[in-house]
Amino acid sequence: MAGEGRSPTGHRVVMFPFPSPSHITPMLQLAGLLRARGLDVTVLHADFNAPDPARHPEFTFVSIRENLPREVVYNADMVEQMIGFNAACEAPFQAALEALLLQEDEPRVCAVVVDGQWYAMLGAAKRAGVPALAMRADGAATFLSMLATPRLRADGYVPIEGIHKLLIENLPFYRCQAWTRSARDLIRVDVSHEETVLRFITLVADAMRASSSGVIVNTFDAIEGPELAKIRAELSRPAFAVGPLHLLSPARVEHGLHAPDRGCLAWLDTHPPRSVLYVSLGSVARIDRAVFEEMARGLAGSGVPFLWVLRPGLLRGGADQAAAPSLEELDNAVGRNGKVVTWAPQREVLAHPSVGGFWTHCGWNSMMETICEGVPVLAQPCFADQTVSARYVTNRWGVGLDVGKVIQRENIANAISNLMAGEDVEARRERARHLKMEANRCAAEGGSASLAVDNLVEYLLSL
């Protein structure tokens, strides 16, 4: 589908999001900012979980027409699946990019921006002769740990033995369990073998060093300034902190798999300020039924009103993997204090005055949104970068509490009570308000994020 209008700069940037809503959304938010600054935007995309071109007539959308093997699409190991996506999409991506270069009477392709998970596409773009930048869908701290991993492995270090060197040199806010010499807060994916995770991280880090022209991160200096400086030193190339993207984006961009239940906003209207706990574990994480039961009992036992997102597919196990809990289960579990929805308009929920806390998986988009609304966090990381973000929420930024490694109803009820009304609640809320002010300052006209996007456009035009 062709985009509307023509680039006043005579240049266009090609963007290639990873086929997941949490990755597509920030990529298109950035695309809108680039478009507003005079660049034409062509979005290459996989047919798997493809974005809807009708929602963005300002961009040109082109499918790479990949052929994903069945064993990749249905692989329960998400890290192996990402490696499989890279292998299957590399050749069709390069072919589609080279075809764009041959188009006549179209703005010149100055660069390509690929999602940070597309390590193979960095090499493909280099072979096609197009400068490529990687856009991270996580934070600077997570990416910094990924860059450090290959060097540590070469020195004989792995996450179970000697990882303290990484903690001391690069990630001082991470815990190290001295009795096992392991790191609780490094990237982990429980359903994936450790060596598979390390292989993927190494592939990403090596591709960044070998084939990228820079990195784009949806973050800002006030929360990750030292980490951004270390990334620039590690890569010896630009790192653009363009966040919070959802505040800068000229148009509302959200790509979800479920329609939000906007009726929950009226329910929130009936509650006093900062009295409701919002609960959502994002669009991908899955939990066992036993964990669901403990969460439900802990919520009910806390006495705190709550809005709980229980999307289809959240529960693991059973014949129907996509089944949500039955209405009877929910009625029995949540009591009278809670409201359950299959999906919520999260940004509006977090901005609602009745919401006083966010029980979250600590996915990076959720982190950006809760920081920008000044809402304290109850952290329950599930996998990957979420463990890193949870540590920063609790110990670096001081705006949240950890729900605990063991999900048990009494512990949950206590954690909720402490978050919403504990002795440190006012200090935590004040720190959250401070981060909100910093985020708004960065996103304001002339702020650091806006300047970073300007610098990014200048850099793209110079390539």
Structural class: alpha/beta
Number of domains: 2
How many beta-strand elements?
15
Query: For this structure, what is the CATH homologous superfamily of the largest domain?
Result: Glycogen Phosphorylase B
The rough form would be described as globular
* CATH architecture term of the largest domain: 3-Layer(aba) Sandwich
- Flag low-confidence runs: 160-164, 174-185, 318-322
Strand content: 5-15%
- How many DSSP H or I helices? 18
Q: What is the CATH topology classification name of the largest domain?
A: Rossmann fold
Largest sheet at a glance?
7 strands, parallel
Strand order of the largest sheet: 3-2-1-4-5-6-7
N-to-C span: 26 Å
State the name of the first-level CATH class of the largest domain: Alpha Beta
Rounded radius of gyration (Å): 22 Å
Helix share bin: 40-55%
Care to describe what's here?
The protein is globular and about 65 Å long. It has helices at 21-36, 70-73, 78-101, 119-128, 140-154, 164-169, 194-211, 221-235, 245-248, 263-269, 289-302, 327-334, 346-351, 364-373, 386-396, 409-421, 425-443, 448-462; strands at 11-16, 40-45, 60-63, 108-115, 132-136, 215-217, 239-241, 276-280, 287-288, 306-309, 315-316, 338-341, 355-360, 377-379, 400-402. The strands form three sheets. It has a seven-stranded parallel sheet with strand order 3-2-1-4-5-6-7, sandwiched between helices. A six-stranded parallel sheet has the order 12-10-8-13-14-15, sandwiched between helices. The protein has a two-stranded parallel ribbon with strand order 9-11. The protein has two domains: 11-254 and 445-462, 3-Layer(aba) Sandwich (Rossmann fold); 263-441, 3-Layer(aba) Sandwich (Rossmann fold), CATH 3.40.50.2000. It is 46% helix and 14% strand. Mean pLDDT is 86; it is low at 160-164, 174-185 and 318-322. Helix 3 (78-101) packs parallel to helix 4 (119-128), helix 4 runs parallel beside helix 7 and helix 5 packs parallel to helix 8 (221-235). The chain is of the alpha/beta class and 463 residues long. GO terms for molecular function: quercetin 3-O-glucosyltransferase activity; quercetin 7-O-glucosyltransferase activity.
